[in-house]
Structures are given as structure tokens and as C-alpha cells.
């Protein structure tokens, strides 16, 4: 799912056991606030022309006096850092690569959209169920 | 409220509203909590090398290594809304080329129900202590401190640090040889 300005659903297992598929994060992106280690950030990677948002933790920060910064991220559940994922073979993320920061969290809410996406039969089942209900209601039975 | 379907409908609507209210209460009740705790940190066996960091470029960068001890009792941080703590050790320092450097050297996930005492002795670093340059040689003021990210059952994801840090110094000469 694409991240909105202020929330997104977790899609992969890179940050388990904190976040699982279907959990929802609330995000902010205050430009003036500096990015520091420990923060959970959202950045995009270009995988086969799809812009996928990745939600991982910052583990290195090198910031110059003028504000230019080099960042390295890593998923809590991964053994290696994210260098291999960065676009164009970059070794570091910079400030504008970071789209958002995670501020709050609600479990399990997104599980329905994910199930619908992963198992299309479920979607058809829900629609047919609704259809049957409507049909019963209008007295078709 | 006669048919089975309308009963199921009423019960599920009520359950969902209750869950939503409870989730909001989890957030509201721990929004302002102070998650600090005292920490002691010590380091020894400090070594510094200057070798190419191939993952970044062909240039030689400073690579530090050390062993550390740390003690922290994180039990008071586990309230009704704490699912997990992500605990990490950070080295923070300033160099001529970078005003702020922060490198995470070690981390650990403590889940609800696990032992919440952090007691490490002579612990290896989990991650390489690379500098973005050659700024660690003879550095006398690297701060080591322990922090944690509280992952709630529902609510905000605050970052807190322990009170108590360690001032680390690096030697003025590089260590040669292959052993670390």
C-alpha cells in the first residue's frame, strides 16, 4: 500500500517482532527535526519500477555542520543493513530520501486489506456474501 | 433482535467499538510516561585501525573496536502497554569533518516476559565501528550511551536514553597487524 501523508501499513517482516504485516504506523515528517539513530523512518527503494516504501531503523548518522547528512538503516529482524537496497548503489541515504518518520502504532488494523490483496478469493467471497444478503433483504428468497 | 444475523451484527459492532476504545486508552494512558532508567557503562580493549571500507568506497576509514560492560534494570519500563523494548548502544562524537556522528554498536530486543535486566560483561560489538573518515585517531571524547525504543501494544513509539554514559578515548596510533 502506498503511504499517505500520515499513515501506512506494514508489508514485510523486516521489523519483527515489533511490527508484523497488517499493523499500521502513524507518521510525521517535520523537516526541521533532525534524524537521529534509533528513529524508525520510511524511505523508498526502486524495485522493478515499483516504488516500495521500507520502514526500518536508523543505525548510523554522520551530519556535517551545514546540515548535509549520511544515514544508514537496518531492519531489526534483518542480519545485514540496508545498503544493498539503496537506489543507484548509494552507500548512504540523505535527508531527502527519508519520506516520513514513525511516531505511533496500532496493531492488526491493516490485516483486512492485506488479506483481500493476497487472497483474491476472499474478496470474491465477501462480495458474494454481500450480494446474497442484499438479495435476501429485497425479498428475493 | 430476532434473527441470527442481526445478533451477530450487533455483537460485532459492539466488540469493534470496545476494541477501538481500549486501543485509544492504551495510547492515552502512556502518552506522557517517563521511560528513563539509570545505566552504567564501561569499555576496555580499545583498538583503532585504518583500513578501506569497501562497502562505501575505496578509501581508508577509521575502524574502532572495543569490549564493553553495561548494567541497566529496565523492569520499570514494562507497563501494561509495553510490548517490547529495542535497546541499543550508541557511540556519539564530533570530528573536524562531521559535526555529529552517531554509530549504533550493539542492540538487543527485549520482549515482554523476557528478562528485563541488561547485564553484559566484556561484550563484543555487534556492528563495525566505522567512522566516515579518519576522525577517531586520538579522539578523547567519544560518548557511549544506552538508549531504548519503547514499542507499545498501541500508541506512540518514544525513544529514551538511560542516565549514565561513558567517555571513550581512542589511541593516537593505529594498531597494525591482522588481529583485532
From TrEMBL, chain A:
It is a single-pass type II membrane protein. PROSITE patterns: SPASE_I_3 (PS00761). GO terms for biological process: signal peptide processing. It is found in: Endoplasmic reticulum membrane. It catalyses: Cleavage of hydrophobic, N-terminal signal or leader sequences from secreted and periplasmic proteins. It is an enzyme of class 3 (hydrolase). CDD domains: S26_SPase_I. The keyword Phosphoprotein does not apply. GO terms for cellular component: signal peptidase complex. Keywords: Endoplasmic reticulum, Hydrolase, Membrane, Protease, Signal-anchor, Transmembrane, Transmembrane helix. GO terms for molecular function: serine-type endopeptidase activity; signal peptidase activity. The keyword Ligase does not apply. InterPro entries: LexA/Signal_pep-like_sf (IPR036286), Pept_S26A_signal_pept_1_CS (IPR019758), Peptidase_S26 (IPR019533), Peptidase_S26B (IPR001733). Its EC number is 3.4.21.89. Catalytic component of the signal peptidase complex (SPC) which catalyzes the cleavage of N-terminal signal sequences from nascent proteins as they are translocated into the lumen of the endoplasmic reticulum. Specifically cleaves N-terminal signal peptides that contain a hydrophobic alpha-helix (h-region) shorter than 18-20 amino acids. Belongs to the peptidase S26B family. PANTHER family: SIGNAL PEPTIDASE COMPLEX CATALYTIC SUBUNIT SEC11. Component of the signal peptidase complex. NCBIfam families: sigpep_I_arch. This is Signal peptidase complex catalytic subunit SEC11. It comes from Petrolisthes manimaculis.
TrEMBL record, chain B:
It is a single-pass type II membrane protein. The keyword Transmembrane applies. One of its GO terms (cellular component) is signal peptidase complex. Keywords: Endoplasmic reticulum, Membrane, Signal-anchor, Transmembrane, Transmembrane helix. Essential component of the signal peptidase complex (SPC) which catalyzes the cleavage of N-terminal signal sequences from nascent proteins as they are translocated into the lumen of the endoplasmic reticulum. Essential for the SPC catalytic activity, possibly by stabilizing and positioning the active center of the complex close to the lumenal surface. Belongs to the SPCS3 family. This is Signal peptidase complex subunit 3. It comes from Petrolisthes manimaculis.
